[in-house]
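To whoever is on call:

I kicked off a structure prediction for a single chain this morning and the downstream step that reads the tokens threw a length-mismatch warning. I double-checked the sequence; it's 358 residues and nothing unusual in it as far as I can see. Pasting both halves so you can look.
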Amino acid sequence: MTTIDTPRLDESALEQFVHQAVGDLAAAISGLMLHLGDRLGLYRAMAGAGPLTAADLADRTGTHERYVLEWLSNQAAGGYVAYDPQDGTFELDAEHAFVLANDQSPVFLGGAFETVASCYTDHEAFARAFATGEGVAWGDHDERLYTGCLRLFRPGYEAHLVDSWLPALDGVVEKLRDGASVADVGCGYGASTVIMARAFEHSTFVGVDSHELSIEQAREAATEAGVARRTRFEVAGASEVPGTGYDLVTMFDCLHDMGDPVGVARRIRESLAADGTLLLVEPAAGATLADNLNPVGRMYYGLSTVICTPSSLAQEVGLGLGAQAGPLRLEQVLREAGFSHVRIATSTPFNLIVEARP
């Protein structure tokens, strides 16, 4: 009979890790609770309302009291809402509402949890990709990925793009004020394009994305924002950017998704005017894996495993750059594409903002 040697375990280390894993398990199911709270308007109904009973909240949202009570109990256990055992009421404080209920807030996270929820739905595709090495194309995901990403990224773009990121580039704001030609590559639902078009009324903008549904939504967004005359949106791959002579080309959180980021960057360099600029926004990351072993890195590596890397592997070349490429690898890609000037213009806890010139 074969015997299996059982390693001697450090009981204290085992207990500590079990607590960590259980904490992650609680966070995983609570992420679904957050998504439900966002989708059903529970947080919005609690914002500024003071103490509420489950019955109060159910009445405000057209939901069933018994479900709401269980949901509120989860939220209280996680510290998302405050619970008063004497009155049996729950309250969402202003700071938490800024994160959970206000989709215009720069720290709103409802879209992030919507994005993660879409990934759970697509788990069979990811398991198959792990086994075969094939990719999962951007357009093959649960539709909440697209709306979730819009709601995840737009608040940050609204907060930083015009006031911080563009001014960090040499001479770009002046060109935009005078009237520049801009291409927004990988524009998705057009949030970044519309934000720039609203701010710079003398400039013209073209948004490019390979996902037809996103382009349809971008056109609607431009019309709603009153900037349709100065924007156009085209269904095209990033390596097929229409036209040349752009004063500014922007890429927001998408270069690492490309199958051939070097080829895409080369085409963008060719599309720029001689004194044009590429604004590249990528997830914040350090130069090495060891630099990224933190909560932000953990989040981005997870998202990269099921969104960014599969997207790249579904395309030609399939480099699989990943969401945590970091500044040195990004510079290497841009210089290989022919850019002679590359620098980190500014950063946030979640973003690297790179300036590149031909």
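Update from on-call: the warning came from a stale cache, not from the record. Cleared it. Sanity check on the structure: The radius of gyration is 23 Å.
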